[in-house]
Amino acid sequence: MTGQAQATLLGIETSCDETAAAVVVRDRTGAGRIVSNIVRSQIEEHAPFGGVVPELAARAHVVHLDAIFARALAEAGLALAEIDAVAATAGPGLIGGVLVGLTTAKALAAATGKPLIGVNHLEGHALTARLTDGIAFPYLMLLVSGGHSQYVLVEGVGRYTRWGTTIDDALGEAFDKVAKLLGLAYPGGPEVEKLAAIGDPARFAFPRPLLREKRLDFSFSGLKTAVRLTAEKTAPLTDTDVADICASFQMAITDIIRARTGTALVRFAEELPDAPPQIVVAGGVAANRAIGLALRQAADEHGARLVVPPAALCTDNGAMIAWAGAERLALGLTDPLDIAARARWPLDDLGRTGQGAA
Ligand code: KG4
Ligand code: ZN
């Protein structure tokens, strides 16, 4: 992409339990640079409830967002008037939180007269690897977070095709639920990974749902139920039992991810025979090293490039929203001030308004 002016964007993210704002520059060659990136996690507010409480999340965003975006500007050494456009998550997510961020962005855009870009949160995840690694279209994305588990073909800005999703729990949710039933702290993913490292992955033979199928969907609830039944049968659980359950659970997950990703890369080669195979990962679960290794094995086996952005950019943040906003702005895709916040907003829907990249 050539010929565009450099643009500096403020990005705001409030769709779940992170209050986040960042300043990102996209230069005229299309390369991105993070100038500031402030994230305030609400984990402590939600931990006593073992999950995100939507009303608490929305209130915390109201309390903290002003200071967070002011800090993002201050760390960038910029006044609001020096920003070229304001981007905010417009969905999907917890609607109270999305409204807080989007309304704030509208106010900033109205006050400065600068363009507003309402970003699909999933598009933020999908385009992050272009900010961090300058990866060219097309590529495959595996998004694995607390709310999503999906393979998406990314062919351009606004051009996304979902190839598979979970038919029940998201992967992060499965980690969190397993952790909860084992009495581990919230969020459960990191706890399960820690204990899995010292447990015996061969002790319990947990199911690998849909493993042999060609489709790219996930199902984790049967696996979670098997873990629960095993925990009940083995109770009272010793520390060793808990570690062995974590290790066996994580082994089932990595087997599923490796196989599914292999299937996805075969499909990529079939449908896009002229494109070099590439896969990027996004979402909080991407921080899991065993899963990262499974992805590496699948990518190596299929001769694909794997991009794993730094963990802080895989979890929710403002930089990915600012960057997605910058990519859209470069294509002239801005939004009116009355753009609606959306609790549900599948990525495929962007195809109607989005444009391909040159
Ligand atoms: O993307 P993210 O920060 O937030 C949203 O889902 O919006 O992802 C959080 C999820 C949680 O379910 C958490 O348990 C999971 O990512 N997670 C992990 C790890 N770190 C975070 N799951 C497995 N292993 C990890 N190391
Ligand atoms: Zn997310």
The distinct bound ligands, ions and cofactors come out as: 5'-O-[(R)-(carboxyoxy)(hydroxy)phosphoryl]adenosine, zinc ion
Q: How many helical stretches?
A: 11
Helicity range = 40-55%
Write the H/E string, N to C: EEEHHEHEHEEEHHHHEHEHH
In CATH terms, the superfamily of the largest domain is ATPase, nucleotide binding domain
Provide the gyration radius in Å: 20 Å
What CATH calls the topology of the largest domain is Nucleotidyltransferase, domain 5
Assess the beta-strand content as a share of residues.
Answer: 15-25%
Q: Could you say which overall geometry the principal axes of the C-alpha atoms support? A: globular
Q: Can you tell me the residue ranges where pLDDT is under 50 for at least 5 consecutive residues?
A: 352-358
> Could you give the count of β-strands?
10
The N- and C-terminal alpha carbons lie at a distance of 6 Å
Give me the side-by-side strand order of the main sheet. 3-2-1-4-5
CATH class annotation of the largest domain: Alpha Beta
Largest sheet features = 5 strands, mixed
Number of domains: 2
List the helices and strands and how they pair.
Elements: E1 7-13, E2 18-26, E3 32-41, H1 43-46, H2 54-76, E4 85-91, H3 95-112, E5 116-120, H4 121-133, E6 139-144, E7 149-156, E8 159-165, H5 171-181, H6 188-196, H7 221-234, H8 239-271, E9 278-282, H9 289-301, E10 305-307, H10 311-314, H11 318-330
Parallel strand pairs: 1-4, 4-5, 6-9, 9-10
Antiparallel strand pairs: 1-2, 2-3, 6-7, 7-8
The structure holds 5'-O-[(R)-(carboxyoxy)(hydroxy)phosphoryl]adenosine and zinc ion.
